[in-house]
Amino acid sequence: MEFVREALPPRREDGHKGDFGKVLIVGGAVGYTGAPYLAAQGAVRSGCGLVFLGVPAAIWPVEAAKCACAMPFPAPDKNGMLCDRALKPLREKLEECDVLALGPGLGRSPEVQKLVLGLLETEKPVVLDADGINALAGHMDSLDARRGRVTILTPHDGEFARLGGDTSADRAESSRSFAGAHGCVLVRKGHRTLTATPQGTVLENPTGNSGLAKGGSGDVLTGMIAALLAQGATAVRAAACGAYLHGLAGDLCAEWLTEYGMTPQDVAEAVPSAFQTVLIEN
Description:
Blueprint: H1 2-7, E1 22-26, H2 34-44, E2 50-56, H3 60-66, E3 71-75, E4 77-78, E5 81-82, H4 87-94, E6 99-102, H5 110-119, E7 126-128, H6 130-134, H7 140-144, E8 151-153, H8 157-162, H9 171-182, E9 185-188, E10 194-196, E11 202-204, H10 217-230, H11 235-261, H12 264-280
Helix pairs in contact: 2-10, 10-11, 10-12, 11-12
């Protein structure tokens, strides 16, 4: 907990919203409207100054109705998913932002894959999750080309395997090997989530419980990591602190609601309590 407290980006007392970072979340599809919303909730509740959501035009009314503290905007879509025509307007919006969170609820199609690979050409820091990760399968050169730029991947074991990760080997060793080979920070989700760095360090997260094993929990985590990055945390600190605080929020929810009854929405709402626990703990 002391590591997390010291690693959190400081907040200026005289700061304004422009001082606390701008995150662009790209995701969502027909049938997956909750994912970008939950990622936005995670980002807003982790201190980000401005959060934008680039979503398919088909679901924009849903996101606009859901989001009071984040700003969704419609982007070109096809069959309910973002298409390659969305690349230009999303790149333009990204120019105004500090961090790209790419993938929550994005769906899978050839056009989505083309969009993801195009957005990965950015120089901005990227947090890649869910179908953003799936789009890399068979195109690991796009990840390798980002070596030297900040890239954080947040796969569960199935997504890790699709990228060529070895799920039969020791978790720490295979995570270390993958992060080093591809020059990224790897947040390998699961029981005792691991954060592996390109330099070979592996951090094991002590928080979290089985109540987090529900669709949507990872979207909250993606938003939290992106928000910490946008506020100035290093990639490793944003990843490790995000995982710790996300797990701690889940632990608080389990105390209140049980691991059976808690939801990803509850976890997002508990994020401020997790921050408070870290900040006031002696």
